[in-house]
Amino acid sequence: MSLAGVSVVLGAIGLQQVTAQPTEPITFVVDEGLPHGITQESVEAAAEGIALGHEPFTLHVVERELEWDEYSNGETGDADIMLSIGDDPEDPDLSLHDATRVAFAGEDYGDDYSTAATIRETFVNNRTLGHGPHAIIGAALTAADLKFDPGIRTPLLWAPLAALPMFIAILAMYRWVGRRRDERARYRAFGESQLRLARAVLELETLQLRVEVAGVQQDRPQHARLQNDWKRVRELTRELARTEQSLVADLDRTSPPLKARTAEQLESDLQQFAADTLDLQRRADVLAQAAEVRSGHAGSRSVLDRLALPLLQSIDEVLAHHDRYPAEARALEAHRARLLAIAQEVAAGVGTGTSPDRAHDDGAHPGAPGTSPAGRGADRHADRPADEQAAGLVSRHGDLLQRWNAVEQDIRTTALRMSRRVASPKTIPNATHVRTMNESVDERARARVSAATAGATDSFTGLRAALGLGHGADLGPLQATEQVLELIDRQAGHDQSTPPPPPSAAASGIPYGLLLGVFPLLVSLGAGFLVSSQVEDSHIQYGRTLTGDRPLAGLKVYGDPAALAGPVEPRDTDPQTHADSLDLDYVRERMAWSLEYSDEGALLPADVEVTVALLPSERYIDYAPDPEYDHRIAIDYWDLLEAQQQVKQDVAAEFPEVLDPRTGDVALGQAILPVWILEDGTYAFDNFLTGEFSVGVSSRLGAYAFTGTEPTVHGTGDMADVSIGWWISYELEDLGRAMEYNHLTVDQVSPAAVFWAVFFSAWTGILTVIMLGLAVVEAGRRRVGTAAVRRQLAGLRTDLEQLALGLDLSRLDMVAVLGLDSATGGRAEQADQRLYESALVTAWREVDALERLPRREQRGEAWEARVRHVRRLVTTLATQQADVARRADALLRSQRFG
Question: What contacts 127, CB < 8 A, 6 or more positions away?
């Protein structure tokens, strides 16, 4: 935030510097007797409201040549700058401007030679335009910009300077957010690990009791194995408890400095602690459940149900394709029925030998759907001694596990036989596809277990190993049935000839991070080269688009148009005489026409009234043919200056509003266009004498003296039939262009500086926008994704309610209808229905748990994964319910109609 504040402050300072307007007045000291109407009063009148700088200074105006001590040693008296407006008659100072006519207080003119020459050049430019006092004002404003401006007003410096802290601030904030996210995730993971350890500690005595009770009825090898597993769980619990204390001290920063872990070591130990607590939880769960099953305790049914449910759901999906492989499907369906029958025997056998209340708790009461003939037969032995009953349960459960293992082996063998029938060069073309298929099968199997158990998969494979159910694979026959489904899906994909998806940036080997890094760099380099090349190839000032949109405000004529030689055979659409062409509407029409057909044209940037002064040349100037160009004349520069002053006085005698009476210069908004009429009636245009005055060397107003001293002659040659009004429209276009370029300065910077400034600013800006955009997109994506998952959770609640409403009908279909026609006497159907209801309860409880979570915890990948698991389980249950209803309806129809 501090860096962002610095960036804002620098941006504000830069904006103030770049856009700052001068407010400090410039003081003038003018010697008496100066030419061109330059007096103390006229200069102060011209300076009113205009002569302002960024810091105050005094300008002393003299006519004499400056002395050595003045321009070389800076002895300017009380003035900050001295300007000599005098001239050498032999050198009009038009091409190489005399820098010795400008002196700075306390400085050698050579130290600021360019500034001194530019100030002198501005004065000469304005004097060539006929200005007197305003020529002094133009020179003073140029000095204010170049010499007396302490600020740095180029955006090429302030833009990157303001962008750098902001970019660093964005990076710092981005890293801080990442560290905070990692820290919250670390504490959350550590809290979950602590919770797992606390539960293990709380259940330690209960687990010991289960192991001791189970060991009483088991033989010595099995008892020794349970005891060893129990000791390992106890030792691991105590070890992790000690580790927890040290980790808490390091996280709370209460450990002694010499014993405290480093950041890397702490991160590694936290990850190891989480893995160890998961391993402890898995070991404890496996030990408790194995003890239940081995000893025939009441929890045996739920343990074996948990093992059977994913496998049975996978078999159901395989049997949906029974028409492809009828023989294997019939065998697989028989294996499924045998497995369900064993599960039902376990459920019925657990209740015997205990008490009626316990039997009722296990759902084995007479007449209930979960009651089987085996359960009813077991009731006959209820009067046996407790030790004999327990020994019988252990023996019977050992036999049931052996039978269970044999059925799983048959299921795996049948499923592998189906896989060999499905496999083909299309589905498994090479070893690479074999590897990817095995990975997909393993992922499918684990996802199946996760969905069936609502995400509780930690102890599944360990429990199977503890019970001796393996068959060379962690998940046993489930992987074999999932392999069949994977091959069927791949075969269907080849049959449909689905085109492969277009390769993404990640799939094609181009990381998104590289794209995000290269794209801003390329764009920034391109912008830097483009701007710097424009600066290097052309004067950036003279390529700007003109924006003038004001038509000529007024047109007056001084003198006699009849003195001009008439147009020779003018076109029908043109005026027939010069007098007709000196019309405001015609000139405006010609300017608008030129603008329509020229992309670089424009009208005037301000309201200007033009007075066309038709002047006999013999009364004002001496001229001679130009020795180099036949269509030009040459006028002596000093004669031109005297003639311009005389023209202003003569025109003002007839049109007094043309001049400002306080300064003697042309008034703002007025312009005089002298037209020198030669002896043969041809004519030449002088420079416009306007209220605008040139400021700075970059101005194009009056910058070229030869346009006045070497004017072009019109009214002769191939263009003799063109009227003077037609030419005036083009002269006005040049005036508008020069006015737009006036009061503008060009930053004299190297193309290399421009390149690096533009490159760094563009790169910083693009990266900042990308980072902020990614943050907004990521936040929006998470919000949208979380909202969608919440809607899915609400839909799951509705689906579960529909399944619960149809539970009674499902029991009738499965037990009463399908069970009566079953080869197992209804035991498989009773177990199937019980597993269905158990899974339904599991899904219902998981949805309740997810909905009860605080709103802030209903987000993130873990929460979304839990919702996906429940959704898959509910989808499987709904499919199973629909399949049971379909099979029951088919059976009833066959019995009714034969």
Answer: 36, 85, 135, 641
Q: How far apart are alpha carbons 333 and 822 in whole angstroms?
A: 12
Highest mean pLDDT among 232-236, 370-374, 383-387 belongs to 232-236
pLDDT at residue 358 in the model: 36
Q: How far is CA 185 from CA 260, 263, 270, 497, in A?
A: 21, 15, 11, 44
Distance CA 31, CA 37 (A): 12
Alpha-carbon dihedral 576, 581, 585, 586, rounded to 10 degrees: 70
- Whether the per-residue pLDDT at 210 is higher than 80: the answer is no
Task: Please give the helix or strand (H or E) that residue 198 lies within, else none.
Answer: helix 155-202
What is the C-alpha to C-alpha distance for residues 275 and 508, in angstroms, rounded to an integer? 35
Dihedral sign computed on CA atoms, order 854, 856, 858, 862: negative
Q: Is 455 left (phi over 0), alpha (psi -120 to 50) or beta?
A: left
Distance between CA 636 and CA 217 in Å, rounded?
132
pLDDT beyond 70 at 163:
yes
The two most distant CA atoms of the chain are separated, in Å, by: 150
pLDDT tens sequence across 664-699: 999 999 999 999 999 889 999 999 999 999 886 567
In angstroms, what CA-CA distances link 601 with 390, 595, 730, 823, 828? 109, 5, 10, 100, 95
Distance of CA 195 to the CA centre of its chain: 39
Q: Which residue has the tokens 């600066």?
A: 535
Q: 734-756 in b/e burial notation, b at 16+ Cβ within 10 A?
A: ebbbbbbbbbeeeeeeebeebbe
Residue type present at position 614: L
What's the pLDDT at 500?
46
Note the pTM of the prediction, 2 decimals: 0.56
Mean pLDDT (the chain) is 79
The Cα–Cα gap between 362 and 726 comes to: 112
Distances from the Cα of 114 to the Cα of 98, 590, 695, angstroms? 10, 42, 15
Q: Cα(411)–Cα(333) distance, rounded to whole angstroms? A: 9
Determine the length of the chain.
Answer: 898
The pairing of beta strand 670-677 with beta strand 609-616 = parallel
Distance of CA 187 to the CA centre of its chain: 29
Per the CB < 8 A criterion, the answer to whether 276 and 269 are in contact is: no
The H or E element that residue 70 is part of is helix 68-71
CB 432 within 8 A of CB 371: no
Which residues make beta-bridge pairs with 673? 612
- CA-CA-CA-CA torsion for 508, 513, 516, 518, nearest 10 degrees? -80
Would you state the structure tokens that stand for residue 472, as one six-digit string?
């060379």
* Secondary structure (3-state) at 611: strand
Give 105's DSSP letter: T
Contact 125, 138 (CB under 8 A): yes
Report the pLDDT value the prediction gives residue 389, as an integer from 0 to 100.
46
Mind listing the pLDDT tens digit for each residue in 73-118?
A: 999 999 999 999 998 888 877 777 888 999 999 998 888 898 999 8
